Amino acid sequence: VSPSPGLKAQILQAARGSKPPANNNTTDKKKDSGRDYDLLKGLLGLLTLLSLFFAYNWYTSRQEADTTEERYRAQIETCDSIQEASNRQYAIYQDLTNPNNRILGKDAEVPKYDETEIYFYHNPVDKKNYLQLASLPPIDNNTQSYQLWSIIGNNPPQPLDVFQSDGDIVIPVQHIEGTQVYAITIERKGGVQSPTLDDLIGTFTI
């Protein structure tokens, strides 16, 4: 059968206007490459999450460890402070039993503070003095203090220890050689250089 005269021209025209058939191997490779890239992204994301998780756990554990260590150090310091205070108090009680002590009460009752009960431990051999504060008149610890004085002859009273009503029953105080009378007054917070005689609690003659 003879082809029609225009068939060859139609075939060539159709060939020139058509696209080459797709290469299945190339398409498959692109699809495989895309899947590999997605898998790699997923693995990287998982690794990032795991890294963040472990970093957070490490940080939290480190914080807890630091907090525990700080608490431990604070407890050790507290125990040491308690031990030191106990040792000091024990040494004081040992001093109070020294046979060289003279235990003095107040010379005379001061009407304004007649309920005050204080004992003065004077040791002229070891040069130590202690106050046993059985009962003190109340003061405002924010604005007032108790103060000890040394009186020698006609000299002005010499200011000595300043202390508060903070619960100590027995406290060590200064020993001044030649003191004839020790006195205690109530003064403004921190102490003064001249005693307030209107707030004289008591005197102790040596």
Note down, in words, how this protein is organized.
The protein is an alpha+beta fold. The chain has two helices and eight strands. The strands form two sheets. A four-stranded antiparallel beta sheet has the order 1-2-3-6, covered by helices on one side. Strand 4 and strand 5 form a beta hairpin. It is rod-shaped, with a radius of gyration of 48 Å.
Poorly predicted runs: none
Q: Radius of gyration in whole Å, from Cα?
A: 48 Å
Which percent range fits the helix content? 40-55%
Class from secondary-structure proportions: alpha+beta
Strand content: 15-25%
How many beta-strand elements?
8
In angstroms, what separates the terminal alpha carbons? 155 Å
State the shape: rod-shaped
What oligomeric state do these chains adopt? single chain
The residue-averaged pLDDT reads: 87
The major β-sheet equals:
4 strands, antiparallel
Strand order of the largest sheet: 1-2-3-6
Descriptive tags:
206 residues; four-stranded antiparallel beta sheet; 41% helix; alpha+beta
Write the layout of secondary structure elements.
Blueprint: H1 7-17, H2 24-96, E1 102-104, E2 117-123, E3 128-135, E4 144-151, E5 158-163, E6 170-173, E7 181-188, E8 200-205
Antiparallel strand pairs: 1-2, 2-3, 3-6, 4-5, 4-7, 7-8
In short:
41% of the residues lie in helices and 24% in strands. The protein is α+β, with helices and mostly antiparallel strands and 206 residues long.
